[in-house]
Fold this sequence. Notes:
Layout: H1 3-16, E1 29-35, E2 40-49, E3 52-61, H2 64-77, H3 82-95, H4 127-147
Antiparallel strand pairs: 1-2, 2-3
Bound molecules: zinc ion (ZN).
Zinc ion binds near residues 38, 63, 66 and 132.
Amino acid sequence: MSLDELYRQVILDHYRNPRRSGRLESPTAHADGTNPLCGDEISLDLVIAEGKVAEAAVTGRGCSISQASASMMADRIVGKTLAEVDELIHRVKRLLDIEEGDPGLDPERPGAALGDLESLAGVRRFPVRVKCADLPWATLQQALADGTA
Length: 149
Ligand code: ZN
């Protein structure tokens, strides 16, 4: 199986079986994001407690890239400190080439692996799809700004 094919399967798996799908009863932070270029929508609920993301739930509709990226994000951020989440956001943006720099994929570095998120690297070749992959992360940044306000 080629790497491209493997990545496609990871994305399709998240798209078909989205993790942490739904709404939270008492979110402490919330944001909605849209990507008009593609028609993608993301609605994100968070519970932030003691400097950590205690819970996350996401609903949305749109293309497989945007929804898979949202699923990976929600799955990944729960249990992380806000500093770790911030670092993850920037690593994903570097992976997507939105920000300059090394996403830190060096397997020799402990904790370097982005896991499923690496499957999003393939969209770098398609600028329009980068917006799809970034939408959940931009929405997350909005929610975090909302939650600490
Ligand atoms: Zn899209």
